Amino acid sequence: MHQLICFGDSITAGWNGEKDTPRLTDRLVSGLNCQVRNAGVSGETTDQAVRRLDHDVLDLPYDKVTVLFGANDSSFHKGIPLTRFIRNLDRIVRAISPDKVILMTPSPVIDARQIGKRTNERVSLYAQAVRTCARSHGAVLIDLNREMAGKDNYEPLLLADGLHFSDAGYDFLAGLMVNKLKDN
Description:
Largest sheet: 5 strands, parallel
Mean pLDDT: 92
Radius of gyration: 15 Å
CATH topology: Rossmann fold
Distance between the termini: 15 Å
Strand order of the largest sheet: 2-1-3-4-5
Structural class: alpha/beta
CATH superfamily: SGNH hydrolase
Shape: globular
Number of helices: 7
């Protein structure tokens, strides 16, 4: 049976405003014939991800690893510089192996609900960095940012905080992931 690790922040972990939930993992298990390990940690940036990469990914069996960071890196309160985000992401991809990683761009936010925390303008810079990283390594990409922004209204995919995913958002994300994983 195939092994999938989902490596990321609270979007991967499954945040409902109070605690981590298995929303994404449950949807992936039902859509794929594989074992899924959710290695999402709420509030994390790529700085912390690099430090836990060995323990949460490399020391475990895997066939594919999805990598979704950028929401916290692009925030004003955590403020990971774009150049360091790019360096961290490159390190993660090289360690996992470009042929086993599936990079995902950070999702857009609802600007009016994220005042003082992050903006779509800033998130877009980090999303572009993920696209560039995927292209330079020949890695698979799920462009979550463009997929969501391309919808007539993506607000129902997010919770009231304008960042974290609603049940509909996890259905949307899992659908993109299942389709991409079946193709790769």
